[in-house]
Amino acid sequence: MKISIVQKELDRRNLPDLLVGPNHVSINTKEEWEKVGRPYWKKVLLQEEYGKIPPVLNPTIAIKKQPIDFAGKAIWEEVTFNFQKGEKSHKIPTQLIYPTRKEVAPFFIFINFCKEVPNKYLPIEEIIDNGFGVFTVFYEDVTSDDADFSNGLAGLFQETDRQGDDCGKIMYWSWMASRMMDYLSMRREADKNKIGVVGHSRLGKTALLTAALDDRFCFVCSNNSGCSGAALSRGRSEGGESVRDICRQFPYWFCPNYLQYADKENEAPFDQHCLLALVAPRKAYIGAALEDVWADNLSQFLNCVAASKVWRLYEKEGFEVPDDLPKCGDKFIDGDVGFHLREGKHYFSRTDWLIYMEAIQNAINK
Ligand code: GCU
To answer: What fold characterizes domain 5-365?
Structure first.
């Protein structure tokens, strides 16, 4: 891959070298990556950005068949998870929808902003018509999107004021996606080697974190995730969100340690390519929108290039891209890392869904 223009832009970012582990040890093979590199970057990101992973709880499950069936094309069940910890418990309803005409289907685990089914971000018919199933949760049923850590899952785990590497809300949403994976991988309707995680914006950050930490997910689609998601923080584009901006408005998404990097992203021992690289050698698709300046399209694109170093340890190409900066209409979905830049604003649109499904189908049929 010839990447001189792109490489120049990337060099300007001066990123920490993914292939240098603790005590300057260099990582040259996929075995060294798995033994040293991967655990090292995972530890850094948990300690400094997202916080510790809460321990696994095994829920009890209740299933209720739903009446609506999308013209007979889909079966819909409400699956309620009941988590119990000591005296406390918390119930989370999720929706499982899958094609009637297939015995097993590839699946999206979708952490969503909306509760109703279908909804503006969840085009059930398009998903079913493309042969996929979807297992979705409304994120605030997991825990609220604010600084209150006494409700929902957070209320089960966080007993004192948060400090240091106590996790933020993104980690709780992500934890739930992994519990949905525990359940879905036992259902015969799901092809368990073809389950991915998808989310938009703050939930695109969540989706990326989920796939980075849990290698049962064979793909991730991280839509318009921007700062602290798919976008590199170092050298961000004009108008892009900074670590200071996000820490000022949404400190509770992260662990308290992250706040020290406001205006100091250049001093952080990590950048967001460390997160994306943890998905290797699986598939990662990053979606951007032209008018979504806040999510910094160029920094999301450059991350795909930077993180590909790790896919190459697996003798995979990673991101396959011409030597040019991204322009509207670009759709690079042939590699293990994909990126598209559609017209329009910050949104999870049908266009994004169709591109992700095309990318995944191509990968599955290869
Ligand atoms: C804000 C925030 C972004 C986030 C977005 C969203 O704009 O600054 O980081 O991605 O909300 O989740 O909608």
So the answer is: Rossmann fold (3.40.50)
